[in-house]
Amino acid sequence: MRAKTKIRDAGIPYEVPEASELAERTAAAMAVIYLIFNEGYAATAGDEWLRKDLCNEAIRLGRLVVELLDTNEPRGLLALMLLHDARRDTRTDNAGDVVLLEDQDRARWDHVQIAEALALVPLALRNGAGPYALEAAIAALHCSAARPADTDWRQIAALYAERYMRAPSPIVALNHAVAVAMADGPAAGLTLLEPLRSALADYHLWHAARADLLRRLDRPTEAAKAYRQALALVGNDPERRFLERRIAQLRS
Fold this sequence. Notes:
Layout: H1 2-10, H2 19-41, H3 52-69, H4 72-85, H5 111-125, H6 131-144, H7 153-166, H8 170-184, H9 186-193, H10 204-216, H11 220-233, H12 237-251
């Protein structure tokens, strides 16, 4: 109601954008929708890691965009959100603590929702794939694996490499490095992580990923230091408790 009053008082007109403006405005709208979803999927602060209300609202808005446009990237965005959201109830345990993808009970994933999303992915990839479509293809590979060992990490790494070529960013490079580590071993992943140190110095997941690779390389002292660096930067309680458990495991 406050927003409506502000619009009325400011005399802001309701206008249908020109055709030349539609692509830019759609991209901005989808970016906002995905930000809403991500805050619900992994909250940046607070004692709750998941916000189901935000995830549900983002998916609702994503469906509206697909209904309005029915083009590749809206379909990719919707598929991506559906695939991530299908795992929502298995991402934390009864105490609200983080459960890693490899440890989640895949029988409890929402397979009806996954099927809906998997039908959208080929359509989103048709005639050239944008960032959301590529991310949806990656999520589809995760959700299609019956067991963690069945995950096609090599294909995931290739998709992240393609994603980076189309829209380079340090976060995409980080995800690519993690996928390479799963496909070719932690040493290969660590080699790709190190050049990102400056760009991601304040990003807790870079330190956490590096710590995990050091742990897997049996370098516990370095791993513990990296986990502590991640701990100093993390903003929500469930991830904080996860990092504290990792440090305790290394000490023992």
